[in-house]
Amino acid sequence: MRAWDASGREAWAETPAGAGALAVSPDGRLLATGEHLGVRLRDPATGRAVRLLRPGGFEHGADTASSLAFAADGGRLVATFLGDESTSGDAYIWTTDTWEELPPVACSPGEGGLYRVAVSPDGRILAALNHYGMTATDRKAKNTFATYHLGVGFTPSTSLAFSPDGRLLAFGAADQFLVWDVAGMMRMARRSRKEPGLFFTTPDAEFDGLRVFPRRQTVGATFAPDGSLLAGRGALVVRLDAASGQEIEARDWRGGRVTCLAVAPGGLRAACGSEVGKVVVWDLA
Fold this sequence. Notes:
Layout (H helix, E strand, L loop, with lengths): L1 E3 L5 E4 L7 E4 L6 E5 L2 E5 L6 E5 L10 E7 L5 E7 L7 E6 L5 E6 L9 E4 L5 E5 L3 E6 L4 E7 L10 E3 L5 E6 L2 E6 H10 L6 E3 L9 E5 L3 E6 L5 E5 L2 E5 L6 E6 L5 E6 L5 E6 L4 E5 L2
Parallel strand pairs: 14-18
Antiparallel strand pairs: 1-2, 3-4, 4-5, 5-6, 7-8, 8-9, 9-10, 11-12, 12-13, 13-14, 15-16, 16-17, 17-19, 20-21, 21-22, 22-23, 24-25, 25-26
């Protein structure tokens, strides 16, 4: 794990045990890292550890956090874990003012650990992804209102993101990108008689607000502040129109094949990482 300042100078480096996920708080004051003993909170400027969070159900702290996400207002931190099946299907939540642990939310689309979690900007919806599929769960109503089953042999995607306004949820599935209108999915779930909510295995036009685009070997999709999608494709970073899936632009930052993408809190900058260990940062304004 390495950190750089705005000038590109390395600020600190550390090799924590079993590091599996990273997240930066919206105000930039906290770095959360998923490690062997739980979730460690650090000062992002120095790397100094300030707190260790361990879910109450983890007696031995042997599970590694696979995904971390702060709510947009910074008031909640959500973590998922890979490990014992009795705990790996839940999302664990802490308040960031007192670090009180809230009741976990069951949101696994099937057996096995969760690879990625995303939180809607208002903090209400949790989306979770594993090799079985993707779920969308209303945290307040404690209801998983939609499940997308990915089928046998699916390679898990790392793409799972809400748009800045919370209206859309995008994720990668096999050779496609699926973009959901969240309100549309909730309406369909209310009309469906299936329990525990809307369940489907193939994209279909009858589903209100679901759009399907060719994935074209893209990785790490996330939303830009203007609502467009950013994704890596080979050595390129491409910008896609979230309504049509049409490519708006593509840029080669000469960093090698892109493996991940992130947009900074506030949306002024974005960064991509490559398979050769290079990180490129650019202005989105």
